[in-house]
Design a protein that fits this description.
Helices cover 74% and strands 0% of the residues. The protein has three helices and no strands. The two termini are 18 Å apart.
Length: 87
């Protein structure tokens, strides 16, 4: 694991230390990692919503049995990757 130094104003440092003192996180690193994971999830959700809106605005097409299988397999792959990352 790589190390990264981050400079924070005193008010932010105090806030992070308060989160740790409340037992919500074990360390500042744990808190920052959680913030980054949440940001990644938010950005992925925004991307998905954008793609869905693009799809809804696009031309309707027939979905073949093969298309359905590909979509299902991709969804299962994503779900498996999420379950591995959540644990």
């Amino acid at each position: 694991m790589q190390t990264m130094n981050v400079s924070l104003p005193d008010s932010m440092k105090d806030f992070v230390e308060h989160q740790i003192a409340q037992g919500r996180y074990g360390s500042a690193s744990e808190y920052i990692r959680e913030l980054i994971r949440e940001d990644e999830k938010r950005r992925a959700q925004e991307r998905l919503e954008l793609l869905l809106l693009e799809g809804l605005a696009g031309e309707a097409t027939e979905v073949s049995r093969e298309d359905g299988s590909e979509i299902r397999n991709e969804a299962l792959r994503v779900l498996k990757a999420r379950s591995r990352n959540a644990g």
